[in-house]
Write a structure and sequence with these properties.
Layout (H helix, E strand, L loop, with lengths): L6 H19 L9 H19 L3 H12 L6 H33 L22 H38 L5 H41 E3 L1 H17 L4 E6 L4 E3 H22 L3 H6 L6 E10 L2 E8 L6 H10 L5 H4 L4 H6 L22 H10 L3 E5 L6 E8 L5 E8 L2 E6 L3 E5 L1 H5 L14 E4 H4 L9 E7 L2 E7 L1 E8 L14 E6 L5 E5 L1 H4 L21 E5 L3 H13 L3 E5 L2 H10 L4 E4 L8 H9 L9 E5 L4 H10 L3 E4 L5 H12 L3
Parallel strand pairs: 2-4, 9-16, 11-13, 17-18, 17-19, 19-20, 20-21
Antiparallel strand pairs: 1-3, 4-5, 5-7, 6-7, 8-9, 8-14, 10-12, 12-13, 15-16
Helix pairs in contact: 1-2, 1-4, 2-3, 3-4, 5-6, 7-8, 8-13, 18-19
């Protein structure tokens, strides 16, 4: 398994652990068997294991020597420990320097070398105008004054509450009520004025902060264009690039999140789209292919377009490949429109290539593009026909502030839909009209989706149709009623709910109600007549679910990759306490755990699992750097079913154990 791409993660983890060691050892020699003593030893032990997993034996050996000083931890031992930690820091520093040098050499390599993946230009330092900083500071001060005023109002309301309590038994309560009514009106007036003032200040401050984050898109597109030319040269193709991004600006955080997705699109355009020079001449085209990278601002959003003048998309061929790969049934494919067929290219695992190349054809790329775009509140679709080239369009928010959603009720649930996908509403007659009664009007060519039924509840009260456009295809969403539009902050689901089907994020409404924001790609699927958009993949045996516990980020990621590559679903956590919390609410087929962890270690975790009737038969596999006979015996006595050593771990052995214990073999 290649490890180069994991080196930045290892370096980040190593620096974090060295920082924690500095914090502990900076207090002086910790008392033997104290919490600081155990924490320092644990940090070195985990760093040693990560170094071995990365194939860095020298770092692992020095960590081992440093760990050994704890066996005879006197004053001299502490001095030796400080010296060894300093050696580790220098080795990590040398590794960082070597990585930076290697990256620079790759960036300066000639186009004839193996094509490289770029991630755009290095992010420039943000230069904040002095007047913007002055405004933000001034707004912060005024907001603090408003906060003090709110505190005064709170005290006033407490005083009114006390007056109301004392006036309950008053001989003339109407006088108390009159006084309270007057004070309440005055307080409400002051509160309303304060809220209006604070709302204005917050909007101004958000505007100033977002203006700092919004940067020109042109440097990113220019960098992508250079990559396209270099990649074309390495593949023996002549490629020209035209960048159109006049004054278009986008949140730099969005650009960072989309860099890899845009690289995928550019590589696909060069490798899949642009023909070789002899083929282009035979077709009467110019010898050099053209890729257009365009960014434009439309209705408060940004559209990024990647297009080429290559051979385009042949819908029948795409549909045939989708049927071969089991992504669509022949029956559902009969009446699929060309638009619907093109969207199949975004399905996970789909590829039009018979053989993979160094650049593409492995069934990855466009699905990751769609995921990246949806995560930032955008939409993506693809256009093009035979000989017409391919155009991929990304519709994006300008900034990553709140996301505007339409809140609807369907099947008794409140859910959100990104507002940029919504075009219009229709009343009860449209909601009750059967699909068979649709005529040939443009809006009636849309796919009809009864959302309540898909959420598991009958749609007896459905009275509204929300007309949407998803991935360039119209959708009629039948719901109970529309609640209204809100601007919310989208948050990822908690880790134990990451596989919540049909949702892309969690949002909290202004009244504190949490709701799911829908991922329409999950719901919009073909019916038996094949007249909807995408299709459901054939039923498969459920993937094995493994709970992976290790406090080392690098080890967790490496083990996770081994298991995921084998088709196993992995939930990874960093501590035994988190693992127990997951087991309370989720069923898993196997537990893979380290031993050395803060808090509940792997042995104690295994004992607790064996002590609970509902978990007593859960398979447990220990993967640890401890490889002595007594260590293995301790693991098996705690209740582990298998024990593997990290330093000579073979991925296939781990996968085979998990599959056997999980019942797949």
């Amino acid at each position: 398994m290649p490890l180069d791409d994991l080196l930045p993660l290892f370096l980040s983890e190593a620096l974090d652990r060295l920082e924690r060691l500095d914090e502990i050892l900076g207090k002086g020699a910790p008392a033997e068997d104290s919490e600081d003593w155990r924490s320092a030893r644990r940090e070195l032990h985990t760093l040693k294991g990560a170094g071995r997993m990365m194939g860095l034996p020298k770092i692992a050996e020095v960590c081992h020597q440093a760990e050994g000083t704890f066996d005879d931890f006197e004053e001299q031992g502490f001095e030796d420990l400080l010296t060894l930690v300093q050696r580790i820091r220098k080795m990590i520093g040398s590794l960082r320097t070597a990585e930076g040098r290697q990256t620079g050499e790759q960036e300066n390599s000639t186009p004839k070398q193996k094509p490289k993946v770029i991630t755009g230009e290095p992010a420039p330092d943000l230069r904040v105008p002095a007047e913007v900083l002055d405004r933000i500071s001034d707004q912060a001060v005024r907001l603090s004054f408003l906060s003090r005023g709110v505190g005064v109002m709170v005290e006033d309301m407490h005083a009114m509450a006390r007056a109301a309590e004392s006036g309950v038994n008053d001989r003339h309560p109407e006088q108390v009520l009159a006084i309270l009514a007057l004070r309440l009106r005055r307080t409400a007036l002051i509160a309303g004025q304060s809220r209006s003032h604070s709302d204005r200040l917050i909007e101004q401050q958000m505007g100033d902060l977002f203006s700092i984050q919004v940067q020109s898109v042109r440097p990113l597109l220019t960098s992508l264009g250079r990559h396209a030319v270099e990649l074309g040269s390495s593949l023996g193709k002549s490629v020209g690039v035209r960048v159109e991004a006049t004054k278009c600006r986008l949140d730099c955080r969005i650009m960072d999140a989309l860099k890899e997705a845009l690289v995928h699109l550019v590589r696909n355009a060069v490798d899949h789209g642009i023909e070789a020079e002899p083929e282009r001449i035979r077709l009467g085209k110019s010898p050099a292919g053209t890729i257009v990278l365009r960014a434009e601002t439309m209705a408060g959003r940004v559209r990024l377009v990647v297009s080429d003048d290559g051979h385009g998309i042949d819908p029948p061929s795409v549909l045939g490949r989708a049927i071969e790969q089991g992504l669509v049934t022949a029956e559902a494919a009969e009446n699929m429109s060309d638009d619907a067929v093109r969207q199949l290219l975004f399905l996970p695992g789909f590829s039009t290539r018979d053989q993979a190349s160094e650049v593409s054809g492995r069934g990855i790329g466009l699905d990751s593009v769609a995921d990246a775009v949806r995560k930032i509140g955008g939409d993506v679709w693809i256009d093009g026909g035979p000989g017409m080239g391919i155009t991929v369009t990304l519709n994006l928010p300008v900034t990553r502030r709140g996301e505007s959603i339409l809140v609807v009720r369907a099947g008794g649930f409140l859910v959100g839909i990104p507002t940029h996908q919504v075009h219009a509403f229709s009343g009860p007659e449209a909601a009750r009209r059967p699909a068979e009664a649709r005529d040939n009007d443009a809006e009636d060519k849309a796919c009809r989706l009864h959302l309540g039924s898909r959420l598991g509840q009958a749609d007896g009260s459905a009275s509204t149709v929300v007309h949407l456009e998803f991935a360039g295809v119209p959708v009629d969403l039948v719901v109970d009623n529309v609640i209204g539009e809100e601007e919310v902050f989208l948050q990822p689901w908690p880790q134990f709910l990451v596989d919540s089907p049909g949702t892309e994020a969690l949002a909290v409404l202004a009244n504190g109600t949490p709701i799911a924001v829908l991922d329409l790609q999950h719901f919009v699927q073909a019916d038996d007549h094949g007249n909807q958009i995408v299709i459901e993949a054939p039923a498969q045996a459920p993937a094995l679910k493994v709970l992976l516990v290790d406090d080392s980020r690098i080890t967790r990621e490496m083990l996770r990759r081994i298991l995921v590559d084998a088709g196993i679903e992995v939930i990874s956590v960093a501590a035994g306490e988190e693992a127990l919390a997951i087991l309370e609410i989720r069923e898993v087929d196997c537990l893979v755990t380290d031993i050395e962890m803060p808090g509940i270690d792997g042995l104690e975790l295994t004992r607790r699992i064996r002590g609970r009737s509902q978990w007593e038969h859960l398979p447990v596999v220990v993967v640890s750097t401890r490889n002595q006979a007594d260590d293995r015996m301790a693991g098996l006595q705690a209740g582990a079913d298998a024990y593997l050593a990290k330093q000579n771990l073979i991925g296939g052995d781990l996968v085979a154990l998990v599959q056997r214990f999980g019942g797949q073999r």
